[in-house]
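seq as requested:
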Amino acid sequence: MSTIEAVDLKKSCLLLNHGPVTLVSSTHAGRANVMAASWAMPLDFDPAKVVVVIDRQTLTRELIEASGEFVLNVPTRAIAEQVLAVGSNSGRELDKFAAFGVRTAPASRVAAPLIEGCVGWLECRLIPEAHNQQRYDLLIGEVLAAWADPRVFRNGRWSFPDDSLRTLHYVAGGSFFATGEMFNVA
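struct tokens:
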């Protein structure tokens, strides 16, 4: 995994404030999953909190509610094909890590893994809010640890000197907007 540096939790919202696609990783009782999620955003600064919308029928949601934790990973253009693949297949039907070559590294505060090929990571503990979870599929997480790749995130700012390290923004129909350029994933 590339070099990562800790991000001050009060500034961890900056990892998501530009609206990137995220990969949500989760694990419980020996079962792990990863899925793509575009509806993730910062919620609060101190303590740092995030929200993410995850359908109640997904394996990821089941694992998060059982374990009480998850990781929001900020992927890059370099792994766009993996992002599309894990977002287009169910973890109930196959092991996405093995099927799509998704590499991981251990997190520092949660059991869910960090996804390699990303440039930002937020380790989160679920804050149970039954009404929001059931009615809106909205999960709230307290950020316990945050990390960033210093090649692209320094002093609370994003900078993309290498196109392969640009973050992804989902448009539609298998297309991503990668900070300045639209491209299709075959």
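Residues 37 and 177 are 15 Å apart (CA to CA).
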